[in-house]
Amino acid sequence: MQLLSLHVGRPQQRTSAVRDGQPTRWTSAIYKQPVVGPRALGPTNLDGDAQGDTKNHGGPDKAVCCYPAEHYPSWRELLGLDAASFPYGAFGENFTLVGLTEDQICIGDTFQVGTARVQVSQPRMPCWKLGRKWERPELPGEAVATGRTGYYLRVLQPGLVSPGDPLTLLNRPLPDWPVARVNAIMYVHKDDAALAAEAARLPFLAEAWKSPFRRRVGLIASRAK
Predict the structure, then answer these.
(1) Structural domains of the chain, ranges and CATH numbers in brackets
(2) Which 3 state secondary structure label does DSSP give 170?
(3) Which helix (DSSP H) or strand (DSSP E) does residue 65 occupy?
(4) pLDDT digits over 114-154, tens only?
(5) Residue 145 φ then ψ, to 5°
(6) pTM of the predicted model over 0.90
(7) Residue 193 half-sphere exposure toward CB, CA atoms < 13 A
(8) In what order do the strands lie in the sheet with 116-123?
């Protein structure tokens, strides 16, 4: 388990494909640049990183966006791009990790990385900006459909992190709850109230995910009346 590469970025305005005769302008920090050497990791982000949409991105439960390196070959093949055109960081992640795919890492897992301590807080919900970046609107949906969404970390102890740092698992309180299972309940088992209720009670899962699960339980109950 290792931090292969580290990326930061700040909001910038971009122009994408023409729509209705006009180029589409938008602002995002999804364009990340690799970091060489140690970087301070604070309670809400890496030093030098920021979010263009602070309502839906960032905050303590989304301090670090992670993406598994294992997924990159499949995306490069699908998009017809090589490693130089679709490098680590292409998904807008801060940490590109190896050995920690969505079915290998669990909600609540706590790791030591560098001098920082972090905890898995929630799966990532890929947004439209990922599709806009690569001019492939269906890309966020493809990430969800394949389960290759990535996930977020909260910071329990700030510190310095560097590319190449190992991740040491300190605690796994929910071994039956890999990120892949939470994704499946959200996107596949949409009519299973029992699973949604169970997920809504999970300790360590971010409120941004618990709340939709609770709403789902209520909606399913109301339809059953």
Answers:
(1) 2-173 (2.40.33.20)
(2) strand
(3) strand 64-68
(4) 999 999 999 999 988 999 899 899 999 999 999 999 999 99
(5) -65, -35
(6) yes
(7) 9
(8) 33-34, 2-8, 95-98, 64-68, 151-157, 116-123, 110-113, 167-171
